[in-house]
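DM between two lab members

TW: hey, do you still have the Glycosyltransferase subfamily 4-like N-terminal domain-containing protein entry open?
JB: yeah, one sec
JB: this one, 360 aa:
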Amino acid sequence: MTSRRVLLVVGLVAGGAGRHVHELCSGLLARGHRVTIACPPEVDDRYGFSRSGAQVVEVGIADRPHPVSDARTMRTLRSAVHEHDLVHAHGLRAGAMACLSTRLVPVIVTLHNAAPTGPSRVIFQALERVVSSRAASVLAVSTDLVERMSALGAANVRLAVVAAPSLPPTTRPTQDVRRELGDPGCLALVVGRLAPQKDLDLLLDALPLVDDRAALTVAVAGDGPLHDHLALRVQEESLSVLMLGHRSDVPDLLRAADLVVSSARWEGQPVWLQEALFAGRPIVATDVGGTRDVVGSAAVLVRPGDPVALAAAISTVSCDASYRESLGQQAISRSEDLPSRDQAVDAALMVYRDVLSNTP
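TW: and the structure you got?
JB:
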């Protein structure tokens, strides 16, 4: 592909979305393309775009609308965009701003999250309409987002190819990790921010319904705004749950677990479930967002919001060692199909090529 001038537009990204943008930037630079990143300064500090060889333009794209900052960002983007062959924005707000900044340069938008609910929903629905009507292509991290944007009339909608993370080696023997956690009979692990999207209340609702033979202990690795609420429920309901807080040894915890559980209301392409696949852990998860896109058939998927179904799945997996072994082998096989960094960059370049070939 001819060397291109690519403007990446990014808001306050973190986690898997931030890692994806960083890897895309590095991959484009390595292939000889010129990359400019328009992002908040704290994002550049976190991911080191300016140190990687990309040109950085500071913009203020926050999670929620800010009229003064947004107007300033629009002026900056309008000045920068026409020096590039195409724009690739990440996130709905960044995508809408990029689309509104130009009609001459094609804009590609990757959606990493579902639009929020609540009072701000109307605003984000308007942003979805902007992106669906003006973007040259929309990439989405989950099938449900693909379907939503297609229903809104967006052009050239595809499932985004995001590179799988690597699983770092363990730092401690598994038996030491399990001993730290009280040598549970069967250990289920949950990893994630303790926020409404993860719906850990659903998991707590399900635990009293789990078969007693499971001798199950749940370890929750993560912190967030619902920590105190969840910890109080665990205490008051005498649930066998360990609230571990933020942990830097998630690979050790994964390899020590007998199964992992996700009770989320929505997920994109959850990094920790990909890590669980690499670790060969049996997975029980709610069938939401991009979870099925990640795990394929290598997991037990249940309806979201259904504690009875979640409890039944946890019981089946935790009480049957041979079934857990089979699921673990399926997880390893599935991990081998997850995309690499090079494949993710190649997929983005294919979209760029298609869009530019259809641009006058």
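TW: got it. The two ends are 18 Å apart (CA to CA). Residues 341-357 form the longest helix (17 residues).
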